[in-house]
Design goal:
Structural class: alpha+beta
Helix content: 25-40%
Shape: globular
Number of strands: 22
Distance between the termini: 57 Å
Strand content: 15-25%
Number of helices: 21
Length: 583
């Protein structure tokens, strides 16, 4: 595909709000791509160059783009910055100067989508001495061969600022539409039940391989049945299963009956992969092996290859209590790792197994997977790798007693699980149910929100953040919807630290941030923080979150283990709103 054709399709999606129309545009796009383009195009639509688990991303700042625009279009840096200030979008700024260009380079030619992608890959791999100049030259080489609209979208791809109102689910729906049409139906609503089943299968497979591009490519190139071959492989992280909430022990027993009840640990969600080598991955799919060097030799003692779902959490051997997340997070570092491992010992608490000796264990009921976990941990035979503490019960009083015991050990609550359920990667349902201390008192849960801006103080603090504008992510529309501002709970040192971090990500209002509140400064979505509040409320000020907001929100901690897309969803908040009023 020529890149100008791809740019036209991006423009169509960018100016469309209807999810069904965007799905249909995606369907047409994939139909018109050749078999070698579908996989990497899916990465581009997700503002990526590679699948997420490879941890290889474009990190190009606005200053490099401005220098490339200056070099390609013969404009001064001051003029470009002035126009950027006026338009508030660097893609549109580049487009503006491309329109003023009198003529293209003598040797310019139409470029293909593949040529653009190959150049973006080179940008990722360009590091070290003189890398800034090399990056400017690579970007300029693209600008020299593009029309204004192409220039705009190349800039947006590099800055990861596409505003297409689509998320993973929209791409999955486009794939499901392809399958439905291959089955002979004209539209998805001719067989909604089958369409839904197809979507669930595609979602499961992309959660298993953590590579939506591969799933899309396989479906279009080889047919729906081909994704049956996609299986778990050690070394490729799997999306985590997640739990729902309930208001009381009684409500949990009513839902699950006889169930497994585990302690809920407030540490790093960690996947341990033992294949050709030992690897550990965070909830975000980042390789965290180097943070915990003490576990490699211990895990080698096991006779099997496996993938384990665990929680890595700091432990105080003197008090016999687990440490807070704020203490455990200090183990995430590049330097002085050995020294910190001695200062903050960590235990690996294992609670599930997803793969064993070449076979997936996802479909096994939990009661069988738990036996496998216990066998592996017994083989390792070290107190630093244990199974999560747990009981089995169908009595609410026993559950409450165990819950109190977990709190005394420094845990944040319990997780109750259906003993007959399979493990469903990427899902959040009532097969797993969490209960935390604040649920019992009628307080709302803690929430994960993304910082998208800040308000400054008064007087001598007029340049310092005094409160943070926070949003929740909408995966369907790829937008951040503002839900609250947070000032309480933050220390002066934390505000100073945030100020320093914000300096490199301050921006004009991003197009995918929806808000009725105008902060003093916007920042690119990067930092996720955990907050708590007295209750969930409704206010007309927060129309983009169905009116939901928080009364007296307080900062708890930064969630370095979560990406901007890992915020609490508005559906979860709505559920908790009604839950708090039923207690």
């Amino acid at each position: 595909m020529q890149f100008d054709e791809f740019s036209e399709k991006l423009s169509l999606m960018e100016t469309t709000e209807s999810r069904l129309k965007i799905r249909d545009y995606l369907f047409d796009l994939y139909n018109n791509l050749n078999k070698n383009e579908r996989q990497f195009t899916t990465y581009l639509l997700q503002s990526r160059i590679f699948p997420a688990y490879l941890n290889k991303e474009l990190n190009i700042g606005q200053s490099i783009i401005i220098q490339a625009i200056s070099k390609s279009f013969g404009q001064s840096m001051n003029e470009i910055e002035k126009k950027h200030l006026e338009l508030g979008d660097l893609g549109e700024t580049a487009e503006c100067f491309a329109e003023k260009r009198k003529q293209k380079s003598l040797f310019s030619k139409k470029i293909t989508l593949l040529e653009v992608y190959d150049t973006l890959k080179k940008l990722v791999d360009t590091t070290g001495k003189n890398s800034t100049e090399s990056k400017i030259n690579l970007i300029s080489s693209l600008y020299n061969n593009t029309n204004p609209k192409e220039t705009k979208y190349i800039t947006k791809l590099i800055l990861k600022s596409l505003r297409l109102n689509l998320g993973i689910q929209t791409i999955i729906e486009a794939c499901a539409l392809k399958v439905i049409k291959d089955l002979g139906y004209k539209t998805h609503d001719e067989n909604m039940q089958e369409y839904k089943k197809i979507k669930e299968t595609i979602d499961l497979k992309q959660s298993v391989c953590n590579d939506l591009g591969k799933v899309v490519s396989d479906i279009w190139n080889f047919g729906f049945k081909s994704i049956d071959k996609i299986t778990i492989k050690p070394g490729i992280p799997i999306k985590c299963a997640l739990g729902e909430r309930e208001k009381s022990p009684e409500a949990i027993i009513e839902r699950l009956g006889y169930c497994l009840v585990e302690g809920k640990y407030d540490g790093f969600r960690t996947q341990v992969h033992k294949g050709e080598k030992i690897q550990m991955f965070s909830r975000r799919g980042e390789n965290s092996t180097n943070y915990f060097p003490e576990f490699g030799p211990l895990l080698e003692k096991a006779k099997h290859s496996f993938i384990l779902d665990c929680e890595a959490i700091g432990f105080n051997s003197k008090t016999k209590k687990f440490l807070s997340f704020q203490e455990t997070i200090k183990r995430k570092r590049k330097y002085d790792i050995k020294e910190m491992s001695e200062k903050i010992p960590v235990k690996l608490m294992v609670f599930d197994v997803l793969y064993l000796d070449g076979k997936e264990t996802l479909q096994l009921p939990l009661k069988e997977r738990r036996k496998i976990v216990e066998k592996i941990v017994k083989e390792i035979n070290n107190s630093n790798i244990q199974t999560t503490i747990a009981i089995k019960t169908n009595k609410s009083k026993e559950l409450k007693s165990f819950f109190d015991n977990c709190l005394n050990l420094g845990l944040e609550g319990i997780m109750a699980k259906d003993l007959n359920r399979s493990y469903v990667p990427g899902s959040r349902d009532f097969g797993w149910i969490k209960l935390k201390k604040n649920y019992l008192s009628g307080q709302a849960d803690s929430f994960d929100v993304c910082i998208v801006g800040y308000f400054c103080g008064q007087g001598k603090n007029k340049t310092m953040p005094s409160s943070l504008l926070c949003a929740v992510y909408d995966e369907d529309k790829n937008t951040y919807n503002v839900i609250t501002k947070v000032g309480s709970g933050l220390t002066e040192d934390q505000m100073i630290s945030f100020k320093a971090e914000f300096e490199t990500i301050t921006t004009k209002k991003p197009e995918n941030i929806n808000t009725n509140l105008e902060p003093d400064m916007y920042v690119e979505p990067k930092f996720v923080i955990e907050i708590i509040c007295d209750e969930i409320t409704k206010s007309p000020l927060y129309k983009f979150t169905k009116g939901f907001s928080f009364r007296f929100p307080r900062f708890i901690k930064i969630r370095e283990d979560k990406s901007p897309q890992d915020t609490t969803t508005i559906e979860e908040i709505e559920e908790m709103y009604y839950l708090q009023h039923s207690i």
